[in-house]
Each structure stands twice: as C-alpha cells, then as structure tokens.
Amino acid sequence: MIIALTGLRGSGKTKVGTILAEKLGVKFHDLDKEIEKKIKTTIKDFVEKKGWKSFRKIESEVLEKLIKKLETKKSAKEKITILSLGGGAIIQEKNAKLLKKNCFVIYLQDTPENCTKKITESNKKHERDNRPSLTSQKTLLSEMKGLYKTRHKIYKENADIILKRSDDAEKDVKRIIKEFLKNYQTQGGRKI
Length: 192
What we know:
Layout: E1 2-6, H1 13-24, E2 27-30, H2 31-39, H3 43-50, H4 52-72, E3 81-84, H5 93-102, E4 103-109, H6 112-126, H7 140-157, E5 161-164, H8 169-186
Parallel strand pairs: 1-3, 1-4, 2-3, 4-5
Helix pairs in contact: 1-8, 2-4, 3-4, 4-5, 6-7
C-alpha cells in the first residue's frame, strides 16, 4: 500500500513523510528526487531550460513508473510505502486517477502564509531557491495564495484524508496514523 502525501509546496510533505516512514518503519520516496534522478539535473534548471509543460510530462512518467515499481515490490516487509508528491503532481487528471486507484492520498492542508514562511526559511537555511516560479506573480506569497485558490479543491477531491497542518510535524504524524487506521478499518481494509 502506498500512502501518498499531497499539498502545496511548503506544506511539509517531505518532512512529514520522512517522520511517518520512520515511525512506521517503512520506506520513504520523494517524487521530486526520483524525477531529478531521471533528468540528471535539478528541477529548477530543467524547468528554466525546458519549461513547466515538459516537466509535467516527465513528472507523470516518473510517477507512473514509480507506482508500478512500488506495487510490484509488495512483500511482507514492504506492506506500506510513503510517497511525497510534488505540489502540482495531483493537478493533472491522469495523475489524480492513478493516485486515487493505487494510493491512500493524504492532503496536508496549510495556509499560503505558512507555506511561504517555510519555503523562505528553507531557502535561507540551504542558501538556495530550489524552484522557479509557477506563475507571473511578483511575490512568493501572492503566488502561493493563487496556487491555494486553484489547487485546494483538487487536493480535497482526491484525498482520502485531509490533515490541517499544525506547527508540530510529530503531532501531525500521530494524527495521520490515527486517522489512517480509522479510515482503513471503516473501509473494510479496502485494497489500496
């Protein structure tokens, strides 16, 4: 079973996913890292050279291959795998259908303001800006507000669980585990 984390950039998908995998004793996969392995450069450099349309095409290809790979690795040891998605992965209908069919999707809902703050802090800490702009907005905050407005509904519609983020990733992971178990049991352990 693949637990896929979706949400805006800066919503904590990688951080929460890493902690969740650690708590459950399972593997963690980051879609963006898998994409960078395939393209042999950073996402930022790729998008600046080839554009978002080319990136979205590769993102879909890598996602499909990764899900197939993870589904075929179902063994007693790997009953659950955690997958962190890029913020835009689920906005493509093809990807949304693939995720809904093969994964238990958790939407990490956070405010554009919090996401902007986390992105800015991360960029300063690592002395980088790892993503090119998705829109023509002048500030990161205005971009994040616009993305939230257009993507929130898509994230919600495709999620099995919606988790409103707190400032405590450990606490959020405990809530995810509790909600996941509750949802999984009430759905009769549906195959996902």
